[in-house]
């Protein structure tokens, strides 16, 4: 007869097969993911342990990254930032920062997210606890971006439904919102030229009809209720696409990340054939070298790099945290970077070809043809649609594409915030909210409320102010802190070892040199230059200057994220052990990587926390004691089998009876 130890061994061996039964016995609430320990006494293990939820396949992760990089960061923000910074001169710092900072930083973020299996707060908190605030700062920036990125989606919804009208309202100047400055281009051969103060019908439609723009930020005006309804629709779509985490949003991206490519190529092919397109392309590709000393050009180039690739916003760390442990990081980095560069060029060619055509028709130069505000795409692109054959069909398709791109970007931003909240406060979330859907609803409602000031009549001024200070000024400092924390304090040697453990190949010398020296030095130089030669933002090519108190509001937005870094460092320093100042500093700089107590590895096959394994072994080996041994006569192995336990009346099934001591303990 087998001994009790034999039953214990067999029960432990079959513990993973019987995990569903443990959930029922231990009464783990439904909806709790198995990647966190609900029964663990401390939050620390739940925060350190890698998540077990993964992408269904490799394509979902690639589409998530590409969908973010081909989202609003390129189609909306790239031409807006390039035009605002003077055209071709913008491409010089853009390319320099791309190869020295952005691509190495993208590889670093994918490596850190994939290795730790955590969001930005948890990942940086494990590698360098002193700089855990840098992860929190990136989440704050993502949250602020979510409040006004949704407004772009709302604009897209408004234009999408307006495109179904028989006569598109941005084609002519016969509408009630048009002013005497509105100018419709005349046919070739006519001697009529545009006045110096002319404006396009699309520009007047956007400012006078959609926005009903006020005279400035000091004149807030009334709520635009049409835009309010579009904003609610936008957040409803975001919520129902992300409420099941990557399981739902990944399926949506199969369409939203691929459809825009085809349309962008078609529109670019049409735009380059327009009259005056050559002048627009000349403005796009020919830099004015004297503008390189302008700090805002470098700041805008850096922020555009990080926005389009999603780095320092926590998006890529969060996406990579759902990867398999042995995923090829280098291949993903090259693919995402290449798609990002190609898309930026295609969109730039399309946008500036159209601007050249508008400048020719309006009898002005490309630099002054329209305002440099964030609504530039809603002025340039509708004008380009009007020149296409079957203009109404193309307009509907384009604004549907813009809607898809906005949703791609918003999915990534919302998932960063939600993932970080769940990583940072796992037990509180499970105790008070319980379900992932409620966490997503909470984030969406709060972001929607904070985005309301963007849809009043003076909201476009508030929009540009927040975009400049929340997503441009602070982003370089966050990137610098992130590089210092990982490359200097955690160490490129450790990170290279982690990458080699995952992929079998260590990072190249190019990546290591960019992490250690080139990247931090370039970012620090840009930051110093921005302090020495800084210009406050303006609206509409300098025609509107913000009041002084508005700049105070902007720096308040910037401080929301910047204060997280020294604030969290001070908290970790005070909580750390040590008798002297330097002992505490050393303790806060020491990595806090999760290691399995069974095998000592960070990623292993032991899917469940140690306490769950202990309780499962007790439940399987002690609660159910065999009273007969018919199985042994049949040559079957011992161990708990749920099918056998459910058929007690069968003569050849082992009969089990509860153990009174363990039943009493489980009752308590």
UniProtKB/TrEMBL annotation:
Na(+) binds at residues 67, 70, 74, 308, 340, 405, 409. The chain crosses the membrane at residues 61-79, 91-112, 133-161, 225-242, 254-277, 297-322, 334-355, 393-418, 438-463, 469-489, 509-529, 549-574. Its main location: membrane. Disulfide bonds join 173-182. Keywords: Disulfide bond, Membrane, Metal-binding, Sodium, Symport, Transmembrane, Transmembrane helix, Transport. It is a multi-pass membrane protein. SUPFAM superfamilies: SNF-like (SSF161070). GO terms for molecular function: amino acid:sodium symporter activity; metal ion binding; neurotransmitter:sodium symporter activity; osmosensor activity. GO terms for cellular component: plasma membrane. It is found in: Membrane. GO terms for biological process: amino acid import across plasma membrane; glial cell growth; transmission of nerve impulse. Pfam families: SNF. Belongs to the sodium:neurotransmitter symporter (SNF) (TC 2.A.22) family. This is Transporter. It comes from Drosophila ananassae (Fruit fly). The gene is Dana\GF23979.
């Amino acid at each position: 007869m087998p001994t009790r130890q034999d039953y214990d061994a067999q029960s432990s061996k079959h513990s993973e097969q019987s995990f569903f039964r443990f959930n029922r016995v231990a009464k783990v609430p439904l909806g709790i993911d198995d990647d966190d320990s609900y029964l663990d006494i401390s939050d620390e293990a739940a925060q350190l342990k890698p998540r077990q939820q993964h992408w269904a396949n490799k394509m979902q992760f690639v589409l998530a990254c590409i969908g973010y990089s081909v989202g609003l960061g390129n189609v909306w923000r790239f031409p807006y930032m390039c035009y605002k910074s003077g055209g071709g001169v913008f491409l010089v710092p853009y390319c320099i920062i791309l190869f020295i900072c952005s691509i190495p930083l993208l590889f670093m973020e994918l490596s850190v997210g994939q290795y730790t299996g955590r969001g930005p707060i948890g990942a940086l908190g494990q590698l360098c606890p002193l700089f855990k605030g840098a992860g929190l700062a990136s989440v704050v920036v993502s949250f602020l971006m979510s409040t006004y990125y949704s407004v772009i989606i709302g604009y897209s919804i408004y234009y999408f439904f307006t495109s179904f009208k028989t006569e598109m309202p941005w084609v002519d100047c016969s509408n009630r919102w048009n002013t005497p400055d509105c100018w419709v281009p005349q046919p070739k051969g006519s001697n009529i030229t545009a006045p110096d103060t002319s404006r396009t019908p699309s520009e007047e439609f956007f400012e006078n009809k959609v926005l009903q723009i006020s005279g400035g930020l000091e004149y807030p005006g009334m709520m635009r209720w049409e835009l309010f309804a579009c904003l609610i629709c936008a957040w409803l779509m975001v919520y129902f696409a992300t409420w099941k985490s990557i399981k739902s949003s990944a399926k949506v991206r199969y369409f939203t990340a691929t459809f825009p490519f085809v349309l962008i190529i078609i529109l670019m092919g049409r735009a380059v054939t327009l009259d005056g397109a050559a002048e627009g392309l000349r403005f796009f590709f020919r830099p004015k070298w004297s503008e390189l000393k302008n700090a805002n050009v470098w700041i805008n180039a850096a922020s555009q790099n990080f926005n389009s690739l999603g780095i320092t916003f926590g998006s890529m760390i969060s996406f990579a945290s759902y990867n398999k442990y042995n995923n090829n990081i280098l291949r993903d980095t090259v693919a995402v970077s290449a798609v990002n560069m190609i898309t930026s060029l295609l969109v730039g060619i399309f946008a500036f070809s159209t601007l050249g055509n508008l400048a020719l028709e309006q009898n002005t130069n490309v630099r002054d043809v329209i305002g440099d505000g964030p609504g530039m795409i809603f002025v340039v692109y509708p004008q380009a649609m009007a020149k296409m054959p079957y203009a109404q069909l193309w307009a509907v398709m384009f604004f549907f594409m813009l809607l898809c791109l906005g949703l791609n970007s918003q999915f990534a931003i919302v998932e960063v915030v939600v993932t970080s909240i769940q990583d940072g406060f796992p037990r509180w979330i499970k105790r008070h909210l319980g379900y992932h859907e409620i966490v997503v609803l909470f984030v969406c409602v709060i972001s929607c409320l904070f985005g309301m000031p963007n849809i009043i009549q003076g909201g476009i001024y508030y929009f540009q102010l927040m975009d400049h200070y929340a997503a441009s000024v602070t982003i370089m400092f966050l990137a610098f802190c992130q590089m210092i924390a990982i490359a200097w304090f955690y160490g490129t040697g450790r990170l290279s070892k982690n990458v080699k453990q995952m992929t079998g190949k260590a990072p190249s010398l190019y990546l290591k040199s960019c992490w250690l020296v080139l990247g931090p030095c370039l970012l620090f130089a840009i930051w110093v230059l921005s302090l020495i030669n800084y210009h406050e933002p303006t609206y509409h090519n300098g025609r509107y200057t913000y009041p002084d108190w508005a700049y105070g509001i902007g720096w308040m937005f910037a401080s929301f994220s910047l204060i997280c870094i020294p604030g969290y460092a001070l908290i970790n320093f005070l909580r750390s052990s040590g008798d002297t100042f330097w002992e505490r500093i050393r303790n806060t700089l020491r990595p806090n990587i999760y290691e399995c107590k069974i095998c000592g590895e960070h990623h292993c096959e032991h899917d469940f926390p140690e306490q769950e394994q202990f309780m499962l072994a007790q439940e399987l080996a002690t609660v159910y004691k065999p009273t007969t041994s018919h199985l042994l006569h049949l040559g079957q192995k011992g161990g708990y089998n749920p099918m056998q336990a459910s058929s007690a009346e069968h003569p050849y099934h082992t009969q089990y009876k509860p153990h009174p001591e363990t039943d009493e303990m489980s009752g308590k």
